[in-house]
Amino acid sequence: MAAKEQKTVVVTGGGGFLGSAIAGLLIEEGFRVRSFSRSFHPRLEQTGVEQVLGDLADMQALAKACHRATAVFHVAARAGVWGHWKEFYRTNYLGTCNVIKACRICKVPSLVYTSSPSVIFDGRDMEGADETVPYPDTYHAHYPRTKAMAEKAVTEAAGRDLATIVLRPHLIWGPGDNHLVPRILARAKRLARVGDGTNLVDTIYIDNAAHAHILAWRSLEANPSLSGRIYFISQDQPIELWKMIDLILAAGGKPPVKKQISAGAAYRLGAVLEFVFRAFRISREPPLTRFVARELATSHWFDITAAKRDLGYRPRVSIEQGLERLEQWLNKQGEAKWS
């Protein structure tokens, strides 16, 4: 009897923080994994992940990546709070539209899209918000605006030929993080608490975020009626933002944040810095923006009842366990890397 052929699953951005974690879980579960990204990643090759190189604007490369795939996890995105509109629009919106087209061309039955809670952030406190909260009328950054556009495209694409599901993980962190944790550690000496420091936020440990994506795909296959739906995922354990930042600093061997600035002053400073950086065409990210000032001063935690009910999601790694693993990983990286 011939051996059963492995199912092929595609992960866009497979070399990134979340993408590589999803790819790793899929490999463990016996799937053939194909990563689609702009750069070659040796560590993916070591784990047996096939790599297709290309840009999200390249339909031919995307079609090659999606050939005979049973599912696509679209994780790749242009992240950040600063940059040109065209870059965010091209990658986050047009790139997602191209992934949807490639899925249809290649007859891929399932698409899991990684979005962000920032798509509904209007600058005010969000406490226990669920999936019924509408998109805001305006955005203070290109990232959430283009992610919202892409999210709408994915939900609207849901149909008989393509089942889709959207996940909104919030503040992913853990070993291997190349964004949140490094930024906090690198800015340790310059950080200042914005507001009174009591604002609660959701986070999600990397292993939990990856696990949620696998659950979403499985649930979509088992229950096609979930197609087109959106889900928040988190640790289900809101924590004071500045306490979490101090815990990450402690994991990196750095002291807690001592400085403080009012929410209003931070917002005004962000507005001034944005004006100056645009006026002088400074390409690097300002030390503070209006969007970041609002995020640092407000509560944003979410009701994940829907993910528990429909996807069977529960965090498998607690914040405390995750911090222990993070500290061990940071110790291996060495102090010089974060100074």
Kindly describe this structure.
This protein is an alpha/beta fold. The chain has one domain: Rossmann fold, CATH 3.40.50. It has 12 helices and 15 strands. It has helices at 17-28, 42-46, 59-66, 85-105, 142-157, 180-186, 206-222, 241-251, 263-279, 290-297, 305-311, 319-333; strands at 8-12, 32-37, 50-53, 71-74, 110-114, 126-129, 163-169, 172-173, 192-194, 200-201, 204-205, 229-233, 239-240, 259-261, 300-302. It has a 7-stranded parallel sheet with strand order 3-2-1-4-5-7-12, sandwiched between helices. Strands 6-15 form a two-stranded parallel ribbon. The protein has a two-stranded parallel ribbon with strand order 8-11. The chain is globular. The model has no long low-confidence stretch (mean pLDDT 95).
List strands and helices in order, with pairings.
Elements: E1 8-12, H1 17-28, E2 32-37, H2 42-46, E3 50-53, H3 59-66, E4 71-74, H4 85-105, E5 110-114, E6 126-129, H5 142-157, E7 163-169, E8 172-173, H6 180-186, E9 192-194, E10 200-201, E11 204-205, H7 206-222, E12 229-233, E13 239-240, H8 241-251, E14 259-261, H9 263-279, H10 290-297, E15 300-302, H11 305-311, H12 319-333
Helix pairs in contact: 1-7, 3-4, 4-5, 8-12, 9-10
Strand proportion, as a percent range, falls in 15-25%
- CATH structural architecture: 3-Layer(aba) Sandwich
**What is Rg?**
20 Å
Q: Give the count of helical stretches.
A: 12
> How much helix, percentage-wise, in residues?
40-55%
Quaternary state, please?
A: single chain
By DSSP, the count of extended strands is 15
- Shape type: globular
Instruction: Indicate the CATH class.
Output: Alpha Beta
Poorly predicted ranges? none
Query: Can you give the mean pLDDT?
Result: 95
Major pleated sheet: 7 strands, parallel
CATH homology superfamily? NAD(P)-binding Rossmann-like Domain
Which structural class fits the helix and strand makeup? alpha/beta
Order of helices and strands: EHEHEHEHEEHEEHEEEHEEHEHHEHH
User: Would you give the CATH topology?
Assistant: Rossmann fold
- Give the strand order of the largest sheet, numbering strands 1, 2, ... along the chain: 3-2-1-4-5-7-12
Distance between the termini: 58 Å
Provide the domain count.
1
